[in-house]
Amino acid sequence: MRLDGKIALITGAGRGIGRTMALTLANAGADLCINDVNLDAAEETAEEVRALGRKAIAVKADVGDPGEVDAMVTRTIEQLGGIHILVNNAGIIDQGVPTTESAIEKWDEVFRVIVRGTYLCCRRAGQWMVEHRTGKIVNISSVAAFTGLAPRPAYVPAKGAVVDLTHTLAVEWAPYGINVNCIAPGFCLTPMSIEAFKRAGADLDKVGKNVPMGRLAVPQDLADATLFLVSDLSDYITGVTLPVDGGWLVYRTLPRG
Q1: pTM check: above 0.85
Q2: If pLDDT is split at 50, 70 and 90, which confidence band does 207 have?
Q3: Beta bridge partners of 183
Q4: 55-101 tens-digit pLDDT
Q5: Cα–Cα distance, 186 to 176 (Å, whole number)
Q6: Cβ–Cβ under 8 Å, residues 222 and 244
Q7: d(C-alpha 66, C-alpha 72), whole Å
Q8: Within its chain, how far is the Cα of 107 from the centroid?
Q9: Is 236 annotated as catalytic?
Q10: Predicted local confidence at residue 14, as pLDDT
Q11: Active site residue: 119, 155, 176, 236, which one?
């Protein structure tokens, strides 16, 4: 799966899943705009991309701010030559406290980054893609969007909204040759998720054993799925949400003993 001649923008690519996605797409031949709210982290990823022989720029931008998103996409187009691929990876999680004790401000913040951020980036990148009648967009949701995972009163519905936005844009932009798909990661070993597991007092080994494939995801699992969805091999796939969860969503069994 090659991406030679393609230009990709990945949000939240300074570390974790986004960083691995950037390196995977670069290895396939893409040039990259690396976005993160931490410019140093974005620049580190960009340097790794350049070491692979690809062009890369690092851009600090808040995906929830329309002005910063506009400037980021404009810079990508002007400095790299277009925007053929958009991966909306930036995200945060909520407090993990009961809804009755949750902070309204935190709820707003989660929706601002996950839902508003995905919308703003799609909207701005979509302007170029519609004009040029080409494009691949991958939004990052979560298996949480299809469950009653609690207590996550902001994160779960925000990730559900990303799925619905994916459906809407896939239908609207299909006539322009733009594919809009979504990935729903399962539990993945990233710095953010590991910290969340620690705060929740979860046992990572036990969580992994509850996955049919016997382990938690690693960032490369998500990056490989992303590479497929932004490659030519997915040209007739749009509006799909692909769980990358080792079978966790479909796992149901009777208790023993």
Answers
A1: yes
A2: confident
A3: 140, 242
A4: 999 999 999 999 999 999 999 999 999 999 999 999 998 877 889 99
A5: 31
A6: yes
A7: 10
A8: 19
A9: no
A10: 96
A11: 155
DSSP the chain: ---TT-EEEETT-SSHHHHHHHHHHHHTT-EEEEEESSHHHHHHHHHHHHHTT--EEEEE--TT-HHHHHHHHHHHHHHHS---EEEE--------S-GGG--HHHHHHHHIIIIIHHHHHHHHHHHHHHHHT-EEEEEE--GGGGS--TT-TTHHHHHHHHHHHHHHHHHHHGGGTEEEEEEEE-SB--HHHHHHHHHHT--HHHHHHTSTTSS-B-HHHHHHHHHHHHSGGGTT--S-EEEESTTTTT-------
Strand-pairing partners, residue 137, are 86, 180
Check if CATH label 3.40.50.720 holds for domain 7-188+217-242: yes
C-alpha 156/C-alpha 152 separation (Å) is 6
CA distance 135 to 157: 27
Domain spans of the chain, in order of start: 7-188+217-242
Res. 257: pLDDT tops 70: no
Do 130 and 176 touch, CB atoms closer than 8 A? yes
* pLDDT tens-digit series, residues 111-155: 999 999 999 999 999 999 999 999 999 999 999 999 988 888 899
Local confidence band at 187 (pLDDT 50, 70, 90 cut-offs): confident
C-alpha distance from residue 156 to each of 53, 142, 143, 202, 247 (Å): 39, 8, 9, 18, 19
pLDDT at 124: 98
Q: How far apart are CA 129 and CA 135, in angstroms?
A: 5
- The distance of Cα 38 from the centroid of its chain, to the nearest Å, equals 17
241-244/135-140 β-pairing: unpaired
CB atoms under 10 Å from CB of 232, counted, come to 10
